[in-house]
Design brief:
Elements (H helix, E strand, L loop, with lengths): L1 E7 L7 H6 L30 E10 L3 E9 L16 E11 L5 E14 L9 E16 L2 E16 L9 E13 L4 E13 L11 E13 L11
Antiparallel strand pairs: 1-2, 2-3, 3-4, 4-5, 5-6, 6-7, 7-8, 8-9, 9-10
Length: 236
């Protein structure tokens, strides 16, 4: 069994992205000195001087099964903001995941996340925005020689518990299916083909003259090069 814990800061606006954009399946990383599709908002900002934390545990049963659990809480003051009107979002969630490898060729994975994010000084009142966040996925992967195929299903849902009495809520619901093929060409090179389909309903799309229900499809090809970095042998 293994334990993990950490304290951190400078992420008080963490809930702004998912409330303003909804869920997104992407491999684009968030940038320490930039935004994530939110150039007007500084996502890495400390507004209340309170450190957040996360803590987790991992348990293994032999080589076949691993279970992980994590709790995250940024401990932000939802009433705090700065002169740029960057607001603190109190964000916390708990996730539980497992990885099961019944054979050398088969890998099964699943994870569930449940949490909330808040902004606004009026605790549990009409001037506070509160959003419940839920998501889960299941993945199956089969490998034989240099070939591997993986199938993943994602389900996600946000529910606005209370808000600022908008014309529509920030509720978000959808699912996605991903199918990927990996071909290991040799020790260093790998070829990847992936198809992704996402269906979601997000009413705030009306702000951009888009209907709330959207189906996105993406197909991509990639070539990966693997290399090893070997440390020098220390002298006797």
């Amino acid at each position: 069994m293994a334990f993990i814990a950490a304290a951190y800061g400078w992420n008080d606006p963490a809930g702004a992205v998912i409330a303003g954009r909804g869920f997104a399946l992407t491999d684009r990383p968030s940038l320490l000195l930039g935004g994530l599709g939110h150039s007007h908002e500084h996502l890495y900002t400390e507004l209340d001087g309170r450190a957040g934390y996360y803590a987790g545990v991992a348990w293994r049963h032999g080589e076949a099964l691993e279970v992980r659990a994590l709790h995250y809480d940024n401990r932000a003051d939802p009433g705090a903001h700065n002169s740029r009107l960057d607001f603190a979002w109190e964000t916390r969630f708990t996730s539980v995941g497992l990885r099961y490898e019944p054979t050398d060729r088969v890998t099964l994975m699943a994870q569930h996340l449940d949490g909330k994010t808040y902004v606004g000084p009026d605790s549990a009142g009409p001037n506070q925005f509160a959003l419940r966040v839920q998501a889960w996925y299941a993945l199956a992967s089969y490998e034989r020689g240099p070939h591997r195929v993986s199938v993943r299903y994602d389900h996600f849902a946000n529910r606005q518990d209370r808000g600022f009495d908008p014309d529509y809520t920030a509720d978000d619901a959808g699912h996605a299916l991903t199918v990927a093929w990996f071909e290991r060409l040799d020790e260093h090179w790998e070829f990847v083909a992936e198809v992704l389909r996402v269906r979601s309903i997000f009413p705030p799309r009306f702000d951009f003259n888009i209907g709330p229900g959207v189906t996105d499809r993406q197909a991509q090809l990639a070539v990966r090069y693997w290399f090893k970095v070997q440390a020098g042998t220390p002298p006797n």
